[in-house]
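User: Structure please.
Assistant: Input sequence and predicted structure:
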Amino acid sequence: MMILNKRYSGREIRENMQLLAEAYSEFAVYREIGVSHDERPIGMIRIGLGKPTLVLTGGLHGRESVNPVVLLHMLERYLQCFKAEETLDGYDVCRLLEQTSLCVIPLLNPDGYEIAQNGFNRIHNPMLAQMCRMKRIPAAEWKMNARAVDINRNFPCQSYSPAAADDFPASERETQALIQVFKDYNTVSYLDFHSRGKIIYYFRRAKSYGFNAKSARIARRLERLSGYTLGTPANEGNGQGDGGNSVQYYAEQFDHPALTIETLPEQAEFPLDCGYQRETYREIYLLPLEMLRTISRIKKGEYQKDVQRN
């Protein structure tokens, strides 16, 4: 069981995923979706029985150590409710996960996580370790992977911009692994969890007004549940070097809602205090369930009636 407000290694996170899949094997499956550049497995756990799938990711940035633990704790709570046929704060977890599924990748960037937790000497490949040290960035503030590439700027979408002359989109194993997950499953939406400012971003500049209006409706419901602020089109990462995000790629390629959930206060310092885990869990643990329920209502044409009633 994942205990909140505790520090976990990348290995412990992966082992807990495997243990969860074994304990709830009738509706949970663990698989390794790829291997990092420093040869660390990238784990994913899928829960549920339905084909429509919501993808959740955390840990794209190595220094964002709170969300991977929170996502796994959240997943465990869902599985407990599913098995016991219990509701969770009014959400019928059993019904939702009989009709849909969740693919959860708590730690997409295990090399970056290892650097941020324990320093550059934990990278086994000496050439990669030296490449990272040459960036002159403190290990505790490390966002990138073991090749010193920001995964969340590496996705092949309209906003992609190379950080160096020899960069190209989807160059990284971690990027490729997530793209393949999007392709392997019948995905209906995507939530990417980061750690700066308690903000929900929904606007996708490359998409239509109708697409963004639908995403905004979903985001407002998540805003009310979490207490976070709703991002505006003006502050939706429109600066130099902000493109190539996983949410932008997913929205453009699959035409489904893709939201970024930024947890933690703006002033949180790195390395992140594991004491943020419990507070973050309380803020976001219902968001995936609301995402599934809202999308289901939209598909059934019930959402507008629900808005009018409220």
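Residues 303-310 have pLDDT under 50 and may be disordered.
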